[in-house]
Automatic annotation (TrEMBL):
This is Extracellular solute-binding protein family 1. PROSITE patterns: PROKAR_LIPOPROTEIN, SBP_BACTERIAL_1. GO terms for biological process: transmembrane transport. Keywords: Cell membrane, Lipoprotein, Membrane, Palmitate, Signal, Transport. The keyword Metal-binding does not apply. The keyword Membrane applies. It comes from the Bacteria. SUPFAM superfamilies: Periplasmic binding protein-like II. Belongs to the bacterial solute-binding protein 1 family.
Amino acid sequence: MNMKTKKMLAVGLACSLAATVAAGCSGTGKTSGKSSDSGVTQLEFFSSKMENVSTMQKLVDKFNKQNTDVQITLNSPADAGTVLKTRMTKDDLPDIIAYGGDNIYTELTEAGILLDLSDQEVLKTINDSYMQMVYDINGDKEEKAYGIPFAANASGIIYNVDLFQKAGVKIPETWDELIEVCEKLSAAGIQPFELSFKDNWTILPSWNSLAPATQPEGFLDAKREGTATFLGTHEEVLEKYSKLVNYAQTDFMGTSYDDGNRSFANGEAAMLINGVWTVPEIKKTNESINLDMFAYPATNDKSKNKVVSGIDVMLMVTNQCKNPEAAKRFVAFMLEPENSQLYINEQFAFSPVEGVVQEDASVAGLAKDIGDGKVTDFVDHYYPNGYNLSAILSEFFLNKANGMDESENIAATLKKCDEQYDILNTR
């Protein structure tokens, strides 16, 4: 999940960054899609996540070995969003793109540069919930597969199984049960939550769980159209979030992500609100910690309490690809169960491919809901590009820590949410 606002880079810097991973920077001398003297089609695979380069390269090498008529070159530059936008302005698109299911994908669909992959046989293997996410973030909202989900992430509440057992509490399934768990943990001398708001992106996971379950139906479309506001619709989100913070350590605004993970790993709190990506970081401190995850119980209506799970990697083919059939063959290869399983095992992710299951016990509490399609997307994927919600929420909690009246704080924060959204909303 991309949490940070990116800064524009010069074209020359973008190319030099790309060159560190790819065999060369695609620019005016682009050769991808063209056949070499040996008749082999050369295609560029542009991937947005530098942290998965080793796994992606394994899959590329495997494909290249099995397909002697096509050779894929992996290009995974730093600051991929900026690089990709720069290349769009230069009419210099890669052949295949791997990117997250967020507002960058929406911009790509609106630019009309992606091929419709709706006729691909592999779509039959993709979980319907994740395909609906694709349709929801299409610029035109049509049920067209301009991208196919390859990997998913998820967030919720990470909990220390041993501390839950010590306090005699069970996994909460409703909001009231979550508060009851916090009270029982506190009574047993156990700190319920560890929060790390010094790195303000860590404030977003709770919002992404609370907002979809409590906001009015159709809010996102209405907000884009200018007929709805956060003020008057999202008070419950901040009221509940503020209440949970009361069960965290005193210095929640001064605790960093790394320090919070270490404290949780050392048993200083029973719960931590974040995503599956945090589990490997926790285990760097305490490899033997007994932990699991559960869906954030945002309401007292169990049917609304879903796992927040978004498309972390989506595969796309651009309209500049000189050999789209070869590119589609590569996409189908990536989504084969064996290859999808390799990716989710190495990258600690979930797969949208039906039958491919993340079996690590540390996230077992989420696996069934994800497999059953009981998921909802990261709501901030639907906000305008550049919308700095984490900074707005950081100010809210700083005001709380400094003793500001809660009603006043909530109203001022939601007003700011509206003002900044409306500045960036171009629809």
